[in-house]
Amino acid sequence: MARYNFRETEAKWQAIWQERRSFVAVQRSDRPKYYVLEMFPYPSGRLHIGHVRNYTLGDVVARFKRAQGFNVLHPMGWDAFGLPAENAAIAHKVHPAVWTYDNIRVMGEQLRIMGLAYDWTREVATCAPEYYRHEQKMFLDFLKAGLAYRKESLVNWDPVENTVLANEQVIDGRGWRPGAPVEKRQLCQWFLRITDFAEELLDGLKTLERWPDKVRVMQENWIGRSSGARLSFRRTDGVAEGIEVFTTRPDTLYGAAFVAISPNHPLAASLAAGNPALAGFIAECNRIGTSEAAIETAEKNGFETGLTVRHPFVEGAVLPVYVANFVLMDYGTGAIFGCPAHDQRDLDFARKYGLPVKAVVIPDGADADAFSVGTEAYTGPGTLRHSGFLDGLDVESAKQSAGERLEQTGQGRRTTVYRLRDWGVSRQRYWGCPIPVIHCAECGIVPVPDSQLPVRLPEDVSFDKPGNPLEHHPNWKHTACPTCGKPAVRETDTFDTFFESSWYFARFTSPGEATRGFDSAAADYWLPVDQYIGGIEHAVLHLLYSRFFTRALKRCGYLAVEEPFAGLMTQGMVTHQTYKDAEGGWLYPEEVEEKDGRAVNIDTGAPVAVGRLEKMSKSKKNVVGLEKVVDAYGADTARLLLMSDSPPERDLEWTESGIDGAWRFLNRLWRLATESPFALPPAGTPIPAVRSAKAEAALRAVHKAVAAVTEDLQKFHFNKVVARIRELTNTLAELDGSGAGEAEILRVGLEALCSLIGPIAPHIAEELWHSLGHDGLLADRPWPGFDPALITDDSVTVAIQINGKLRATITVARDLAASEIERIALAEPAVVRVLQDKPPRKVIVVPNRIVNIVA
Ligand code: ANZ
Ligand code: ZN
């Protein structure tokens, strides 16, 4: 028996698709467009088999939609700027560009051998000046539109490397590389005004019906809208300027015990000037990173300033002012009032510093005078007490009422704040897009004129010194001011790499466009992306930045859409068993074999501990190389396994038996089509009207499979698709050619199988299609239809239960009358035996499904 020769076949069809430009997209109005996109990869090295799941998912969608008659755009490119390239430069003395383009070449080849239906003519690499020059222009347009600005902001400063670190580079308060304790510093940085769109970005989530709920909730929380009030506490020392706080609970004002300001509040700095102890406290606070998470987990500490402020409603009452490490400078106003009885953090703080705890919201049913708060703050609903004009109100009414009073007395106003911060895009890095501005001593910040774009990265850089190589470069930053012509210096910061990924989906719509990044008409035709596919780890930043960027581009006249991604699918991980030797070192799967139910090291025979299933990752060595699988089994087999067993959003376990099973199935399909024991009629032979019962059943199975697979593909239930294809293959394998119509139906069935498996295993499908006598490409063939009359069954199986126990099943005509079903059920021998001549007490018939008998 000839085995399917995947090696020749896969290469052959890949060459044919390429030669015929099968997947090259063109803008056309005669078909509905469909844009499917997988999050483009960072070219970090070599892909393993777990990496290609999401590309395969996208490919199945692309091929299916194409067959359904859509005009499909399915592009691929490289998110090519980033820190790993610089680390490679430091570790291996290879230039970041060389490292990056090497990886692009390797990974591109890996994607090609998977047979993915990309329009490679649109490939982009974001580190190319032809790409990044456009985002320099976009940035300058944002600057003009007031959407970009520069301000002092706190950064994580690594005092050893003399450089800024991103939050994710700070681990337990230390820099990730040299491990030195990190400090906070004020530095001038560029920001994009994403907060301008906070409301819109929040409201827009409601329109994204084809996004997973959890992603929408995560974005909602990230944007974090809070309604409350700002109010100003008057100082008792006569200084006119009060301390302004933000609160979501103005109803609790009568329970206020203190006011606290952030260590980075301007008032804290001015108080510290005459107070070394306070200055020391502030320095101590600054030793932890700027991230909210770092602040959240640190122990709550305060410093009493000696300042006091007046209560806004209670004549004569004063509150102490603290500097407290848990108050963030960049949320609300950077100052709070604390109400210990109704906020856990305030309560912990009050207990630590001996401040009063006065409950003002009394839970319903509790006694107002007896109710007190111990170690747990009360944050639930209730009625206001000990609260002057608020007494007797519920929490919501009290918030309103307190807000109104603050406004009437000129002490504050109701307001909404967002957790969302403006997007800091400055990075002190080499391998990123240069920020196109020039600093002139006379003129200030001067945008680089269009005629001088792009500002290219210099190639001759050295990574010998810590810090930013652009800063150290001997002459790159020295230039002439475009306005006055005097010597000036370039901005040496580069953009956060999320900048590039915030608009690449638009670039793909017209990748050769040379003036604005993309052609507006092309963007408006193709966008939004109909189906976006990627990891859940991008649920917030990348997806939120892209949504913002699209709106900012719209405001600047680049395009018309607001939401870049109409549909989103977040795929699960590919997992694999982990292995450890006796010393606790990880082992690769190929170093391990199962022998007599025990795992042993192939070379040494030493026992191996089989560990948990984990996400495939190099660090645990539980990876399977992509080439290894493709060399041994072919891309189709790998693709089939990647689509089998688990729905896309769930994890998928990669096993040796799984790949073997997929391989055996494809060979089975191959033999069924090429080694049929009876001759197939020529293509196009009509199915005879008179056919055997077996032929009739097989024909129905074909139409049912087409109907079901079509629906499952539409819903992305790819694992079910695989199951149905296997089922149909089994049914067709039972035909022996003896009955009328069987040969014709086997042909029709095989042709349908080619179409159905085509999106998943496109090479073998193309080959079988060809071997069935067709000249054109399967890739160009429309998706098969089905006859609705052939997919409904005219008989149904009905279960019979007696006292809840299944006793028999009967097959009856669909929609048979209940009385008739009851008669047949009661005559069933198994039922007669159990009932033993006694009439049943009750019979409940659910037509087409079940008969329940109570004996
Ligand atoms: C008084 C109060 C009493 C508060 C009470 C809460 C409960 P969300 O919901 O996250 O918006 N807060 C305000 N600005 C802050 C800052 N910069 N750093 C740390 N905490 C800050 O939280 C709003 C609440 O967090 C505000 O309401 C304020 O404390 C605190 F029983 O004011 B509240
Ligand atoms: Zn100048």
Lay out the secondary structure.
Layout: H1 6-19, E1 33-38, H2 53-67, E2 71-73, H3 83-92, H4 96-113, H5 129-144, E3 148-158, E4 163-165, E5 170-171, E6 174-175, E7 183-192, H6 198-204, H7 213-223, E8 225-233, E9 243-247, E10 258-261, H8 266-273, H9 276-285, H10 292-297, E11 302-310, E12 318-324, E13 335-338, H11 344-353, E14 361-362, E15 383-384, H12 395-408, E16 412-418, E17 423-424, E18 426-427, E19 437-440, E20 444-447, H13 469-472, E21 478-480, E22 487-490, E23 494-495, H14 504-507, H15 520-526, E24 531-534, H16 541-555, E25 568-570, E26 574-580, E27 586-587, E28 592-595, E29 598-601, E30 609-615, H17 626-633, H18 635-643, E31 652-653, H19 656-674, H20 693-714, H21 718-733, H22 742-757, H23 762-771, H24 788-791, E32 795-802, E33 805-813, H25 818-827, H26 829-835, E34 842-846, E35 850-854
Parallel strand pairs: 1-2, 1-24, 10-12, 24-25, 26-31, 32-35
Antiparallel strand pairs: 3-4, 3-7, 5-6, 7-17, 8-9, 8-16, 10-13, 11-12, 14-15, 18-23, 19-20, 19-22, 21-22, 26-27, 26-30, 28-29, 32-33, 34-35
Ligand ANZ binds at residues 226, 246-249, 252, 326-328, 331-332, 334, 336-337, 339, 342-343.
